[in-house]
Amino acid sequence: MKQSELLKSYATRLRLYNLTANLEQIVHKAQENQPTYLDFILQVLQTEVINRDKRDYERRLSAAHLPARHDLDSFDFHFCSGLTPGRMKELRELIWMEQSYNVILMGPSGTGKTFIASGLIYEAVKQGYKAYMLTMEDIITTIKMKEVSPTAMSAYNRIVRANLIAIDDIMLFPVKKEDATGFFNLINTLHEKTSIIITTNKAPTEWAQTLDDEVLATALLDRLLYRCEVIKLAGTSYRLENRKTIFKQEL
Q1: End-to-end alpha-carbon separation of the chain, Å?
Q2: What is the domain extent for residue 152?
Q3: Domain assignment of residue 199, yes or no
């Protein structure tokens, strides 16, 4: 076997994919620039690390399931009250997440709850954390299917191992008792290990009606509110204010 083929074989086994794919160019560049041995090794490994970090970031970003709009730099503070630029900056620093705090974003539809939640998930992904954006329906379906579906079990395990998850529109629809129990068990597993962002248009005191189980609702709130910041948003609906039309404006 030629030296180049053997080197590619070793690089593949060590998962040095850039070296495997670009060996000839790397060697040619070294012959031209004649770096020291240490500089050459450093350049090769540095490129591998940069590419690996990029692939990891892209995988985490894809797995986060973010909506199209999630960049908090474009958040319009004029459309809602309850969150100042200073507090937004603190949220984006994620110190609260490192301390296993939760965040509840509460307010009427269109006040930016989902946008803020997905933006914070995006910030976490950028900083190297495992973070996911989910709906209440996503989670309940995953819990119900995890014992019979390997895909659902993998999704469930990702949630359990996450640093941060956002649950969008919690308690928007009535939840069956068996589903509520499974949801509580998940929250209990995540308690003080994974930070949770919740968006809701209902006050936590109303959750008992959705769950139809006051005891379970109380136990759920006890865990979520133990270390939690509740942010109440108010204002006009951003979506309605920026509603678009398919028709051309008539003169």
Answers
A1: 76
A2: 72-240
A3: yes
